[in-house]
Amino acid sequence: MAVTTNALIPALEDARQAHAAVIDRFRSDVNVTPAGPHRSVLEEHMSTTQEHIARIDDRIRVLRPSRPLQDTIQSVGLLARDAVRLARLPWEIGALMAAETVRGRQSVGERRLLRNAKDEYAITARAVAACRAGQSIAEEAQDQAAADLFEALLGQDEELLRRLQDSLAEHAAAVAAEADGGRRPSAEGGPDDAAARTAEEVQGTVTRPEGLPVSGYEQLSVSDITGQLRMLSQVDLTVIEGYERAHADRPEILNTIERLRGSEPWPVYDDMTADQIKARLHSADPAVAGEVLEYERGHRRRSAVITAAEARIAL
Q1: How far out from the chain centre does Cα 200 lie?
Q2: Which 3 state secondary structure label does DSSP give 200?
Q3: What global pTM score does this model have?
Q4: Pick from 214, 270, 268: which is nearest to 241 by CA?
Q5: pLDDT of the chain along its 315 residues, tens only?
Q6: What is the 3-state secondary structure (H, E, C) of 114-147?
Q7: Distance of CA 145 to the CA centre of its chain
Q8: Cα 19 to the chain's mean position, in Å?
Q9: CA–CA dist 251, 272 (Å, integer)
């Protein structure tokens, strides 16, 4: 019982908090999400997740030793917050439907929708991590009821991640098409590649610290991390962003990543060495050399590349 009380209850509380955060995030995003499959996923998951939160509360009450005064105060607080959440869900969904009937589909920027989808994926990944840890603890404690609860939550959340990944690909394709002059993705590369890569990169939200492109990430200070970000490729920046949003969510790091965002001068630029870039600059258009100069000054600041770009522009 000591294992159950000392480890399982905090695991259940962590899962509860993670799933309450999912509901709050989805509620915020659904207000700007156009009607369609993606918004239906958000609305459906808000409802089922609230039911799972109630099951978590039930299990905690069974496991926790009786503390009448403390439990009463805590229960009142939780019930008040959940009552507001439950009461608002149908009202908000109904209000959104009525508003759309009056004004039609509201135009929301594709980039905003893509960013929201990334955040939704990240916060759901955090809930998945909480459930995986909780399931292991429940099994160690030999609490089958809690293990079954975590398994049910995990199945729901992992299915949601798959559906959100599909939404990510669609939003990424829309952003890529928008940047390509409004043309939709073709069957041969181009925006389709960008969509697939974005969907894969965002999986950095569930990357372990040792798998991040910045060594010793968890032990570094904010200033140490931001000092290394400019050396990273756009792909690696996305991995760091996903991990950071799913964990510490520090504004200084996320704002630095945002400032470093930008299109590479040409595909796979970030994967090339300085010598390879210099060789390509020999025959590059001066306008492209200008893009290289601007991008390099804002990122790795390799003197050899900057000098080569300046020389090409001067011709």
Answers
A1: 12
A2: helix
A3: 0.53
A4: 214
A5: 455 567 899 999 999 999 999 999 999 898 888 888 889 999 999 989 999 999 999 999 998 865 544 444 344 444 434 443 444 444 343 443 333 433 333 345 777 888 888 888 888 888 888 898 899 899 988 999 999 999 999 999 989 988 888 887 787 777 766 655 544 444 344 444 554 445 545 555 556 777 788 989 989 999 999 999 989 888 788 888 878 877 788 999 988 988 888 778 887 888 889 999 999 999 889 999 999 999 999 888 999 999 999 999 987
A6: HHHHHHHHHHHHHHHHHHHHHHHHHHHCCCHHHH
A7: 30
A8: 15
A9: 30
Domains assigned to the chain: 2-193 (1.20.1260.10), 272-314 (no CATH)
Alpha-carbon distance of 134 to 173, in angstroms, equals 36
What would the two tokens of residue 89 be?
């869900």
Q: Which two tokens stand for residue 179?
A: 């940047």
Please provide residue 100's backbone torsions phi and psi, each rounded to the nearest 5 degrees. Answer: -70, -35
- CA nearest neighbour of 128 among 86, 105, 158: 158
Length of the chain: 315
- CB-CB contact of 63 with 138 (8 Å): no
Q: Which of 124, 33, 12, 20 is nearest to 82 (CA)?
A: 20
Distances in Å between the Cα of 72 and the Cα atoms of 66, 87, 94, 197 are: 10, 22, 33, 49
